[in-house]
Every structure is written in structure tokens, then in C-alpha cells.
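Schema walk-through. Below, the input block comes first and the output block second. Nothing else is stored per chain. Lengths vary across the set, and this one has 93 residues.
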Amino acid sequence: MGAGIATAPTASAASLPKSCIPAYGVPNKATEAVNLRSGPGTKYKSLGILSKGTRFTPSCMTKGASWLYGKVGNGPNKGKNGWVYGAYMKQAV
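--- output ---
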């Protein structure tokens, strides 16, 4: 018997933004203050600011991982979903 192949849950995959590559379960923290945006780019509306150290769990990313879409884990924007620029995030340990 071989190992099974891990796949994304169907319900989560259906709710992801279009053109978004799955990136499940990789918790990140903001390295400095960064905007949480409504879309993957600076032309999109800011939904709030994530301060340095704010936890963010991405569920998907743009090609090249420039922008991450996911959920804020703590702070004033806890529970909000949105986009952050990947250069301002680091993997939490």
C-alpha cells in the first residue's frame, strides 16, 4: 500500500478566489505593517492594517507567491479574509 495523496477540501477550494493556487496550512507572520487588501494588488481597497507580528494563514497565492489570500489570526482584524503582499510575510515558527 502506498501513501495517499493529500488534496484540498472541496468546500474550501470552491470558495477560493479565481486564479489562486492553493497554499493550505502555512501560517505566517507580518514582518512589518502591511495592508490587508480586497484583491491581489495595491489598486485594491485596504480592509485594514496588519501590524508587525500579526498571524496570517494563507489558503492560496498568486503565481510566484507575490500575493497571499487568507485569514487573519489575531489583532484588530482577526477573522477577516483578504490579500497581503508576500514580501511582508515570513513563515511562523
